[in-house]
User: Which sequence fits this backbone?
């Protein structure tokens, strides 16, 4: 690389202009940012904006403008001009070159105006590791990393710090690699281990810990915009936590970064992808989605693809391509055409613009509980045995059947044989009165509301619905949909047929329930958990006839699919259109079951007769029998010798199912057992995954990025920007190709961006501080050679993540003490040169986890769905749609899980996290700000989570086998800050205990209140005053700077 | 200023105090309350020059500000401009008529009504009368606001591209339809800092009327890519107006004071060992938290307000969490020099039952708006306090659902809607912009929501093109990448 040939300089960018020496100005570091931010808008890659045919992002243009020294350079003349007509940038651009920038330009031009290509777009070469002849310097170097760091320090006349104290170092590395503090055992073991390899032993143990994966997943969740809700409009719930579990496991298994990348960007496109590889693609489904009623679907479908372009390019390439959505990028070499070529990879996604308000939007994959599946397998032989018994009984019952068919043939004239097991049978044969009989449930009478109207029916009498009256059958037909059921009745619509003759549906609760609903004679059936996102609706193509009796009957087989719902009219299956097919939840509603309307509305006008409900899916034959056009009626009339094989079988089936009690008994056993097995085989959860459309969706450049303005004459094919390496010539144009391209060993950006992110986790800031932007506007790396060394080493190691991290934490650079002198503070104020160990406040999650761990409350189970620990009341309903969504706090263990599992409602995320700078995760966030505010003090002093931790920690301290209060306090201090308090601090804390003890001895009520904060039990055998006093001490410890900070 | 710079600044003040005290007494006495009280004693009356000291950006304001602070009354859900402000007697003539295609002109409308067979125009089902010296038409459902019509500038030609709530409300509050950008209050906090270190520079309060409520999102007052110190702090009705403000049960104020003294003592010890100025900043922020524990409840406690003052805002003022109460608190915050105060009032999404529901919504704000502006005037604060009223879009002239004699709904409409501004150098008794006979399209002086936001910044002395933050390679602005123009015509 060019910059390796340049002599390293004494200064860094943070130093004032006066120190900037002539020989030190370098194009990429110093000059390019000025040209980029002040000139590129009009003289950059964007053809539409370009003025005067001059490009100041290209070598030619730059040299034309600035070559030739100060006298001949037209560029310098313009920048240096005071004439408003000549000066550049022009006044109306609202851009100004500062004095410092002008000085840099001048110095650079004087030195010959040397040009360099943009550093990050050029593949790194492994730099030579600097050597030091001075042994005292060389001695400090444990690893090549240290040599690069030392070189800059040496040039700045700074010396690095020695290693931090063992306890400080142990806490640092434990928090950095697991997000948790070391235990007392960890501390003691480390202090006792005097071997050379003591520290490495710790590092290896931490990398092997299941909490390593959790720690890494926390930052990946920010980048991947992970949330438990959908963001837009209602911000409804979704289940993406299996993706998070996948990430944790991937880090714990030390999955190579190229595989980690490929599975998340294109796992679905691999040959025979595993379930895990499908789940990994949830990365691309974590984006914000909408369910808003008035939306235009295409607008949001395009938006999702745009978000995926942005996230992918930021996370892996450190380049935001976003600008080029509307026009050619003004700073980086990405044209609008190239943007849409990149976008074309993502424009094939199968998920729609309008997504569900409640739960996961397809495509999804189901995840199963292996234990339940094996239980189901164990039950399978029992089921087979029952089936054998059924067959046996069928054979054994042959004689009974023959007898029955003879007897029944005689009875045919008197009536039709029908299924005998209705759970409700409402004949509506009343002639007057308001009490309505259910013959299947003699104790449950219904109630007629409104005008009392009975009339002659299809059989016996019927109920006359006049839109003002209805019958409330209350608990009838309270099916939840987990088993099949059937229902129906006779109707004689007065007009074309509108409204619901029967329904069990609660409109106030998302229309939950089921119905028969007529619209101008077409028959619709709704099975609804929540309309419309969690519901089935089918509607017949044919229509009923007005003023005629017709029999409507519905069967449902509990498959959660529209295909499992059948509508029969007069015993014939009618063809239906599927309107919604997204049922997942229960149908169980408070109803009630109404005749003549829903609860509420949808009044039906006409007659209703003979309602029957069954708690199983009836066969077509059975439905026919109820419709009294039974298949068996004509069969029974025939002589047995005239019956065909099929007809005989129809009769036999009918007999067994409805007449033979022994067969029915076995059949019930079968239904019960198969229900159990089905339940065990149900997925425990599904997760949203990527899937491309079967047919390629054409991609066009969108005028100004507008979804509604595709430029039909500018069709593009999937491709990558020309400024970056080309795709392989023969590769197919899909995301898998893109993923392989991103992880190609020669890609200039991917490895640099990745190791820079790891670096930032361990030092609080990246070598390139703008983790998300390695482009022309990004920050210059503090140690470019080190970054390239780490990047090339990462690729050479086959993208070994744990190895990359291990070598950083093994370095002397990492292990330095964070003590800072006034000299270092003034020369290296933000520690860009790493003249000392990094010291920064713990991030939100680790701060709370540290308190939970210190107090012994932490439940360290890895993985699983989100949990809802304490949060102040009212935060959800203050902002939720309709204002009625309330936060339901969890109980027990779920209050004490690691903070990364805190349920993430993206429109109103947990405040104790956001106050400590956690992003909302509505969009990709590569780094967090790190603030120090009064609101944060209020959290750690007053949040019940922290107060409860303090009093649990106090309890641990008091119950410790120790003679003095001082020793008890030492224990609490070590559990929290992983170090011993010094004598001065210990004296302060012992004083505190004694002073507060006196107070609480006088104020028993306050003591009792303080030690009762939080849900966990406290030890009532402890003296409440002492417990409260110690709680004050431990609360102080939890609020100390050294507790809140990773030293 | 970066967080780093702000922290260094706080720390260096404290460091000087520490050094002074060490020289004098070599004391082990905690720094605590006494020293910090003088150190952090500044509360009000900071000049523009000291804004820099208070966490703003050097060089701001760009020019002499007319407004020292903004009170934004944000009507979430999209109030109907037709039923409140944008009245023309001619509307009566088109009532019940189909909206001509020449007016709609193929423009996109939401899929809630795009399938409707008919688009009957609906005149407001309220009486309108003319008020003030300018004869401005005001609906009968805003009788109190009509009384201060001579104090405000009504802009009837505001427009936005968004047609649904989430994108629209995100657009007007952050300048972009998608999440991720900083909200206006956060931009102002970033640019100007806060003259009052005891209170946040951006305060949000939420209330609701009887109408249909759309969701809000914390991103609407979030800091986006800016430091999260600039995010709006929600003040809430009830016992804990700021989250986690109250000491836990069993810890009284003297105990808390002692705790903070001990924490400061130990932190000072640690600072001497490690030398990180961040430790000193932390001591100072803990002291600030302690002060907030009294200053914030004091702010929320209206017992010191006279009944004359309370009467200005109407009877709802006694209801915690009401819009009226929030308006009084907003004035109190303004007195404390909080630069950006935003009230979200929910319930304006009247797709159905509009006549009844919008009347209720207006009742919940009308008297309070009169009270707020009158109160600001009486206290001499109207001249440097900018009041802004409006929602994310307006509503359609045509009925959503069936139009009956006394009922109808209206869908979302972004082609034109009405906002008003008042105080702080805004013209008084002025109307700006004009819509067509259907209140559907703008025929004169269109004002994009970006222009409104640029105008708010302008009144604060900020050039909207110069308030930028480098993120993702772009100098981000509140007004986004499209050009925005200050609405000079409404500035006095």
Assistant:
């Amino acid at each position: 690389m060019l910059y390796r040939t340049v002599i390293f300089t004494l200064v860094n960018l943070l130093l004032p202009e006066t120190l900037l020496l002539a020989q030190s100005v370098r194009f990429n570091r110093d000059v390019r940012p000025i040209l980029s931010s002040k000139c590129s808008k009009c003289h950059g890659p964007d053809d539409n904006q370009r003025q005067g045919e001059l490009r100041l992002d290209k070598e030619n243009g730059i040299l034309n403008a600035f070559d030739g020294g100060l006298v001949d350079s037209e560029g310098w003349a313009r920048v240096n001009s005071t004439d408003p007509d000549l000066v550049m940038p022009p006044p109306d651009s609202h851009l100004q070159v500062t004095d410092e920038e002008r000085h840099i330009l001048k110095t650079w031009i004087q030195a010959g105006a040397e040009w360099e290509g943009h550093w990050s777009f050029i593949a790194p070469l492994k730099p030579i590791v600097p050597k030091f002849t001075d042994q005292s310097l060389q001695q400090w170097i444990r690893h090549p990393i240290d040599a690069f760091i030392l070189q800059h320090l040496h040039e700045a006349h700074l010396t690095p710090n020695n290693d931090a104290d063992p306890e400080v170092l142990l806490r640092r590395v434990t928090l950095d690699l697991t997000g948790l503090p070391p235990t007392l055992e960890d501390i003691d073991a480390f202090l006792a281990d005097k071997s050379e390899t003591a520290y490495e032993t710790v590092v290896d143990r931490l990398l092997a810990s299941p909490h390593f994966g959790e720690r890494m997943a926390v930052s990946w969740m920010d980048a991947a915009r992970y949330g438990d809700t959908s963001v837009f409009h209602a911000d409804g719930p979704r289940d993406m936590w299996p993706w998070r579990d996948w990430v944790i496991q991937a880090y714990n298994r030390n999955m190579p970064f190229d595989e980690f990348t490929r599975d998340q960007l294109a796992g679905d496109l691999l040959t025979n992808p595993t379930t895990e590889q499908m789940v990994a693609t949830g990365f691309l489904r974590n984006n914000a989605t909408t369910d808003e009623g008035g939306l235009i679907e295409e607008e949001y479908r395009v938006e999702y693809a745009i978000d995926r372009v942005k996230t992918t390019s930021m996370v892996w390439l450190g380049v935001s391509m976003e600008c080029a959505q509307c026009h050619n990028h003004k700073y980086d070499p990405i044209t609008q055409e190239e943007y849409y070529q990149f976008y074309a990879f993502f424009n094939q996604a199968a998920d729609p613009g309008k997504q569900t308000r409640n739960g996961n939007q397809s495509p999804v994959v189901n995840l199963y509980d292996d234990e339940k599946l094996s239980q189901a397998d164990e039950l399978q032989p029992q089921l087979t045995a029952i089936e054998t018994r059924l067959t046996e009984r069928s054979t054994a019952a042959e004689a009974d059947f023959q007898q029955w068919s003879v007897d029944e043939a005689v009875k045919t004239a008197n009536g039709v044989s029908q299924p005998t097991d209705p759970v409700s049978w409402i004949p509506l044969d009343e002639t007057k009165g308001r009490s309505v009989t259910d013959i299947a449930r003699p104790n449950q009478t219904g109630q007629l509301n409104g005008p009392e109207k009975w009339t002659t029916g299809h059989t016996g009498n019927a109920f006359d619905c006049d839109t003002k009256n209805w019958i409330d059958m209350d608990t009838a037909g309270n099916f939840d949909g987990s088993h099949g059921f059937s229902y129906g009745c006779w109707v004689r619509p007065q007009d074309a047929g509108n409204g619901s003759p029967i329904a069990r549906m609660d409109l106030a609760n998302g229309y939950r329930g089921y119905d028969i609903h007529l619209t101008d004679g077409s028959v619709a059936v709704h099975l609804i958990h929540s309309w419309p996102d969690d519901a089935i609706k089918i509607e017949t193509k044919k229509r009923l006839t007005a003023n005629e009796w017709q029999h409507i009957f519905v069967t449902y087989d509990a498959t959660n699919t529209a295909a499992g719902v059948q509508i029969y009219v007069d015993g014939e299956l009618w063809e239906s259109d599927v309107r919604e097919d997204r049922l997942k939840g229960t149908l169980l509603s408070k109803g009630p079951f109404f005749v003549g309307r829903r609860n509420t509305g949808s009044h039906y006008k006409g007659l209703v007769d003979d309602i029957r409900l069954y708690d199983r899916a009836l066969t077509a034959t059975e439905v026919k029998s109820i419709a009294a056009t039974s298949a068996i009626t004509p069969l029974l009339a025939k002589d047995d010798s005239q019956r065909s094989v099929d007809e005989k079988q129809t009769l036999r089936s009918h007999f067994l199912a409805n007449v033979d009690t022994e067969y029915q008994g076995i059949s019930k056993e079968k239904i019960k057992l198969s229900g159990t097995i089905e339940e065990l085989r149900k997925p425990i959860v599904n997760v949203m995954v990527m899937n491309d459309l079967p047919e390629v969706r054409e991609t066009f450049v969108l005028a100004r990025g507008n979804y509604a303005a595709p430029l039909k004459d500018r069709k593009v094919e999937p491709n990558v920007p020309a400024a970056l390496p080309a795709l392989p010539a023969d590769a197919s144009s899909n995301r898998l190709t893109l993923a392989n391209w991103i992880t190609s060993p020669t890609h200039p950006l991917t490895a640099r961006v990745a190791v820079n992110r790891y670096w930032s986790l361990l030092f609080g800031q990246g070598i390139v501080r703008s983790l998300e932007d390695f482009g022309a506007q990004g920050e210059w790396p503090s140690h470019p050679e080190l970054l390239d060394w780490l990047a090339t080493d990462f690729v050479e190691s086959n993208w070994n993540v744990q190895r990359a991290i291990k070598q950083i934490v093994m370095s002397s650079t990492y292990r330095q003490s964070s003590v800072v002198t006034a000299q270092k503070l003034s020369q290296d104020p933000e520690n860009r040169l790493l003249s000392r160990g990094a010291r920064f406040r713990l991030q939100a999650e680790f701060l709370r986890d540290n308190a939970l761990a210190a107090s012994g409350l932490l439940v360290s189970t890895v993985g699983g769905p989100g949990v809802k620990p304490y949060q102040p009341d009212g935060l959800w309903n203050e902002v939720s749609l309709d204002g009625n969504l309330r936060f339901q706090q969890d109980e027990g263990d779920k209050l004490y899980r690691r903070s990364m599992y805190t349920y993430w409602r993206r429109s109103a995320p947990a405040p104790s996290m956001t106050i400590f700078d956690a992003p909302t995760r509505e969009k990709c966030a590569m780094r967090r700000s790190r603030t120090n505010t009064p609101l944060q003090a209020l959290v750690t002093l007053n949040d019940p989570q922290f107060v409860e931790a303090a009093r649990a920690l106090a309890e641990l301290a008091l119950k410790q086998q120790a003679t003095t209060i001082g020793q008890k306090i030492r224990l609490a201090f070590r559990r929290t800050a992983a170090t011993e308090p010094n004598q001065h601090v210990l004296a302060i804390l012992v004083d505190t205990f004694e002073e507060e003890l006196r107070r609480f001895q006088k104020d028993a009520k306050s003591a009792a209140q303080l030690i009762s904060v939080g849900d966990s039990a406290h030890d009532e055998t402890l003296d409440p005053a002492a417990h409260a006093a110690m709680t004050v001490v431990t609360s102080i410890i939890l609020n100390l700077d050294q507790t809140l900070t990773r030293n | 200023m970066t967080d780093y710079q702000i922290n260094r600044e706080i720390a260096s003040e404290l460091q000087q105090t520490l050094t002074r005290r060490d020289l004098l007494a070599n004391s082990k006495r905690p720094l605590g309350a006494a020293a910090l009280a003088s150190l952090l004693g500044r509360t009000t009356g900071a000049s523009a020059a000291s804004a820099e000291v208070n966490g703003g950006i050097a060089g701001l304001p760009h020019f002499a500000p007319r407004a020292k602070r903004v009170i934004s009354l944000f009507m979430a859900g999209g109030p109907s401009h037709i039923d409140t402000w944008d009245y023309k007697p001619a509307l009566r003539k088109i009532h019940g008529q189909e909206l001509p295609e020449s007016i709609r002109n193929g423009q996109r409308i939401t899929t809630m009504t795009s399938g409707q067979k008919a688009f009957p125009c609906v005149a407001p089902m309220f009486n309108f009368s003319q008020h003030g010296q300018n004869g401005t038409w005001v609906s009968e459902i805003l009788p109190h606001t009509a009384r201060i019509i001579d104090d405000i500038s009504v802009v009837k030609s505001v427009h936005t591209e968004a047609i649904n709530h989430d994108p629209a409300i995100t657009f007007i509050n952050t300048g972009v339809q998608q999440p991720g950008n900083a909200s206006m209050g956060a931009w102002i906090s970033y640019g100007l800092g806060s003259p009052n270190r005891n209170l946040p520079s951006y305060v949000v309060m939420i209330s609701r009327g009887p109408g249909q409520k759309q969701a809000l999102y914390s991103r609407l007052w979030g800091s986006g890519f800016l430091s999260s110190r600039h995010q709006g702090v929600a003040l809430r009705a009830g016992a804990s107006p700021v989250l986690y403000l109250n000491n836990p049960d069993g810890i009284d104020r003297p105990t808390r004071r002692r705790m903070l003294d001990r924490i400061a003592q130990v932190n000072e010890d640690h600072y001497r060992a490690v030398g990180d100025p961040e430790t000193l900043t932390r001591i100072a922020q803990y002291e600030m938290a302690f002060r907030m524990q009294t200053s914030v409840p004091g702010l929320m406690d209206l017992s010191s307000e006279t009944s004359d003052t309370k009467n200005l805002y109407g009877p709802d003022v006694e209801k915690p969490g009401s819009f009226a109460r929030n308006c009084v608190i907003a004035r109190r915050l303004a007195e404390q020099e909080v630069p950006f105060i935003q009230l979200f009032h929910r319930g304006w999404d009247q797709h159905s039952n509009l006549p009844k529901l919008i009347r209720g919504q207006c009742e919940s704000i009308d008297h309070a708006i009169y009270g707020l502006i009158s109160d600001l005037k009486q206290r001499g604060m109207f001249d440097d306090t900018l009041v802004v009223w409006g929602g994310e879009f307006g509503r359609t002239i045509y009925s959503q659902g069936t139009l009956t004699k006394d009922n109808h709904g209206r869908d979302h409409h972004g082609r034109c809607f009405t906002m008003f501004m008042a105080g702080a150098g805004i013209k008084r008794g002025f109307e700006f912009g004009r819509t067509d006979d259907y209140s559907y399209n703008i025929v004169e002086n269109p004002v994009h929501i970006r222009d409104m936001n640029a105008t708010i910044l302008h009144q604060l002395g900020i050039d909207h093109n110069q308030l930028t933050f480098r993120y993702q390679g772009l100098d981000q602005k509140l007004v986004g990448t499209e050009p925005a123009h200050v609405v000079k015509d409404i500035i006095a």
